[in-house]
Amino acid sequence: MTAGAAGLAAEPAGPGQSTGPVRPVRVGLIGAGRIGASHAAILARRVATVELAGVADAVPAAASRLAAQLGVKAFGSPAELIGSDEVEAVVIAASSTAHCELIVAAAGAGKAIFCEKPMSMTLEEADRALAAAADVPLQVGFNRRFDAGFAAARHVVATGGVGTPQLLRSLTRDPGLANPGAVPPWTIFTQTLIHDFDTLLWFNPDAEVVEVYATADALVAPEYKSAGLLDTAVTVLTFDNGARAVAEASFSATYGYDVRAEVFGSAGMVTVGDQAASSLTHFGPDGRRVNTVRGDVELFLDAYTAEFAEFANAVRAGREPAVTGRDARRALAVALACVESVTTNRPVTL
Amino acid sequence: MTAGAAGLAAEPAGPGQSTGPVRPVRVGLIGAGRIGASHAAILARRVATVELAGVADAVPAAASRLAAQLGVKAFGSPAELIGSDEVEAVVIAASSTAHCELIVAAAGAGKAIFCEKPMSMTLEEADRALAAAADVPLQVGFNRRFDAGFAAARHVVATGGVGTPQLLRSLTRDPGLANPGAVPPWTIFTQTLIHDFDTLLWFNPDAEVVEVYATADALVAPEYKSAGLLDTAVTVLTFDNGARAVAEASFSATYGYDVRAEVFGSAGMVTVGDQAASSLTHFGPDGRRVNTVRGDVELFLDAYTAEFAEFANAVRAGREPAVTGRDARRALAVALACVESVTTNRPVTL
Amino acid sequence: MTAGAAGLAAEPAGPGQSTGPVRPVRVGLIGAGRIGASHAAILARRVATVELAGVADAVPAAASRLAAQLGVKAFGSPAELIGSDEVEAVVIAASSTAHCELIVAAAGAGKAIFCEKPMSMTLEEADRALAAAADVPLQVGFNRRFDAGFAAARHVVATGGVGTPQLLRSLTRDPGLANPGAVPPWTIFTQTLIHDFDTLLWFNPDAEVVEVYATADALVAPEYKSAGLLDTAVTVLTFDNGARAVAEASFSATYGYDVRAEVFGSAGMVTVGDQAASSLTHFGPDGRRVNTVRGDVELFLDAYTAEFAEFANAVRAGREPAVTGRDARRALAVALACVESVTTNRPVTL
Amino acid sequence: MTAGAAGLAAEPAGPGQSTGPVRPVRVGLIGAGRIGASHAAILARRVATVELAGVADAVPAAASRLAAQLGVKAFGSPAELIGSDEVEAVVIAASSTAHCELIVAAAGAGKAIFCEKPMSMTLEEADRALAAAADVPLQVGFNRRFDAGFAAARHVVATGGVGTPQLLRSLTRDPGLANPGAVPPWTIFTQTLIHDFDTLLWFNPDAEVVEVYATADALVAPEYKSAGLLDTAVTVLTFDNGARAVAEASFSATYGYDVRAEVFGSAGMVTVGDQAASSLTHFGPDGRRVNTVRGDVELFLDAYTAEFAEFANAVRAGREPAVTGRDARRALAVALACVESVTTNRPVTL
């Protein structure tokens, strides 16, 4: 079940209340790489409240290829897509370094904006993006919030089901580091653990991070350590309500894509995250076996679908989406403090 | 993950292969009751390859109400919907007793047909429906086949992962019998266990049922036993490859909607079916707790979505859908043999 | 945890209440085969309230070998052991066909008796054993009752936690049929499923079995079918409170020793039985894997230990043990009705 | 299953090899508090290779009371017990501050020694105890090593099943802090997390801890923070093979006694630890529920039993036990470094 399932059941209005058909939101997608292509397929086939109007990429041939596969229009450039009347909303899945400029441009054109994480590379960029997008819907791609399990955990925490959070955990383990040479330094904090930081902030509502300790290493690809690539990291966050949180990441999970979280508090605990590919269990001479999910799209397909449905709903309702640019800025601040902690080998105060 | 997830990943065609956009299938839905309304919402919001053209019901006001909620057209009658040029395909979610006639009419109008289970009430009706629909796509609503776990189990079985099936199990436990007085006699076999019979036949490929034993009772609502309503049943199927299968059903599962299956064979076992509402586990003074799903739509939301996606794909490809009218006839034959077994308190040979 | 764990915690008496040391019960074991040797090792090393005084076997050399391994006395024959003053209580793990005579002899000598299941081969033998042992403690080896999970399930059922039982299940799957030629006909009912019948009777307190249907086959070793050996069986029990129970068995579980049970009732359900060898889960390229237990002694080591502790306690307290000869007779009656049902291919009334 | 189960199966010697009876080791227990009383009951009733010769306590009345309950001798003082010819081996479950002196005294009397953790309060004490006990068996009570799951995990790690360890985790959550005022400062590190440190060292063989970061707080009983009592702690260990380990503890687990561990490496992962009280699952209107264990004796009853069986075996075999005083010293060094890290709010190099 996705978080959207409840919505489906709840939505049908009562007799006499004519809600009318919802006109799909015409979305233009920028970025034809791995995650862009995945987003495009989801937008085109799984979200009936969205209509994929077209795609663009800094490399026009990449946009053309993806557009042809999906039978949609290829825009000549991101700027052309942003400027087009055929597009009401922009989904940004381009390179992270381009996010801030694209947000500013899209906001300038009055488009609603969905931007993949991280929203920006620096806090200055974050502030610029926030200022530019003050008057348009801006949602950031912290997709885990739309996973049924994570959403249920947050609901339990927010309604007091674990009491005051005291110990939290969030982890991300990726099945593989295809091309270590291409990964920028600090990626493990700003691209990967930023998901976990958002989760931990979301799971400890009304608390702020006051101190961060981080340690990291290149254990998977040690030959890239001198280039600054770190593939294994542990971080400890101290909140102003006394709670401590641990976020961990690795780029070498041989068993699949592993994302889990845990909130332990004064009245109980919730855990969330399951590596099982389905409810199937296979018993044989080697014991009891469950297939594990292999990638983010497989694990979070329903969550990706639900976050785009939320975006479409927010656009149509003219309201702020569930995950904001301010959320993105908070998570980035933690990630950057981790970078400083690794550099100085000291806890860093925020 | 749904069975559709793999499809999503697999689908993008290679470079140079322009697949083009798929024109959504214009579907008309007949039946505005509980499951009809659920199907309509799924067709309207979750399946981008389908366009819900409108709805009809034997009671026009019911159709109007549902149509208004979803912002689609209300046809004046099922016949009007079937005859309309705006409709390429018909989804039948009307009363079971009307299924056969609606199939015959829709096939006569050249429409592709998706019919909820049971396809018919008798084998004679089944033969009539099959004959009428010989030249149009006809899919029956055995939705469990589209659940990721059930599909994975079938794949393991079909590829030899459990060896020769020897002991099988399938069960359905429904959380509640809202209105026992309105349930026709033998419902537990022809409406509920028919799902399990299809599952068991599907999980034991190339084998035929040769004998059936069934026992049933009214334990939930004993006051309706005299009216023929049975709410608790156990059946044993003997296959021509020696395998035995047990199918069980009850209408009183206080803990939610429970659908599970198990295939034990000469080389191993698979089990499938999970009552968990999500990956959340909640720990407190009462121990470790997992919320359970409460209904078929909640448990099988992704499966329903996937079966309609399959239907749309089959219609566009002009091929036979994955679940056929012949499958429906086979499951019905087992259900009717169970009725005879209960009546005679003897094993019944097929 | 075993059922005995609670006992350990509960046992220490209050201040001033001198319970004194418990003199271990001097036990003689009859039967030096596989299960006898296992029982002897458990009695010698794991039950401090028992002292293994010696062993006997119909084949004296077998007794000598086992006795030497454990450093205990070898009696020259079962009769000599039964007659010895060094023995207060007899544990019978001999061939099933000898059980009745050994019970009669041991009871005649005034010994307390623990007898492996089945207590007897026929109801007449059962009555003879019961009459003979009227004045001595007589416990039968339904060890599952002492498993922590099964005991907890029974407690939940007995205290109303599932309401009125409506659908029950118990199954036994053994990892292998080492020597099919040596297995007597009907073994699957009188030796294997008799455990499940006891479980089902125990889990549906105050109800009696009124009808039995059984079907069985030789799917694992078809070449022995003509000799009457059946290795796969499904049985359905109908109780006088309307509940239906399914008991299943197979002799070919490639994945280990699998014993599970389920009680579904008007107010909920309990399931019990776990194939996991420990709490270890291993994640690797093939997914998530748990080692499974391979045999009855591995699965039920704590339960075997606890049943002998109960026996010693009952002997010292001079009270009836928790599992009686009458329990054994009830389970046997169901097993024999199953044999008749398979023979006649009809449900059999008890 | 306990780690002892495998031992039971493996132990019976082959034909002709007369192992003879093992004379139980006569053990004297020092310490009649909560854990001493529990150990005494286990030694008296569950370990057939041990004979509990008597008990002593710094408070003679406490010893008398416990001795009376178990029907064994009460020694007048620990010194009297240590000096007695009736005692071959001493189990020390006295106050931690007395451990070192008792070890020195028992070793001086030539007794074999089992000492609860921590073996000592300082590294100087540890060195003194090690020197004194150089010629007698000395085992320390890191009972988790004898839990079936932990033992299996260690076996997988040691045989390469996860590759090189990269990220480890161990946690202890205790259900309650009965009397916070009585808990010495730093208890969470030297008494509780010392178990986790031993586990982590054991799970990362051949590696040494080179740096430690710890953060801790009084979240459960903040009123005792000024007295130095910390009830919530997170620590990060960096090993010389690059692995990072997180150990966490809390004294307020409302859901029971929670001990888990995880080893993630270059080739896979193992997880271990289960809060389930048994294999029972209970389904009802509130969902699916599993009872959780409530205390260390309940969770580790089999492990405690197995560690005493190992001690008896080591004593009889005249060999070093499986958990040594050197292991205790290593874990203590980590705990003391954590204290320093909390005090200085800096990572501490070892």
UniProtKB/TrEMBL annotation, chains A, B, C, D:
Spans traversing the lipid bilayer: none
Entry keyword annotation includes DNA-binding: no
Domain Gfo/Idh/MocA-like oxidoreductase N-terminal as annotated: residue spans: 25-139
Biased composition (Low complexity): 1-16
Ranges for domain Gfo/Idh/MocA-like oxidoreductase C-terminal: 189-350
Disordered: region residues: 1-21
Entry's Gene Ontology molecular function annotations: nucleotide binding; oxidoreductase activity
Keywords in alphabetical order: Oxidoreductase
InterPro entries: Gfo/Idh/MocA-like_OxRdtase_C, Gfo/Idh/MocA-like_OxRdtase_N, NAD(P)-bd_dom_sf
Keyword Cell membrane set for record: no
Source domain of life: Bacteria
Family affiliation: Belongs to the Gfo/Idh/MocA family.
Protein name: Myo-inositol 2-dehydrogenase / D-chiro-inositol 1-dehydrogenase
Organism: Cryptosporangium aurantiacum
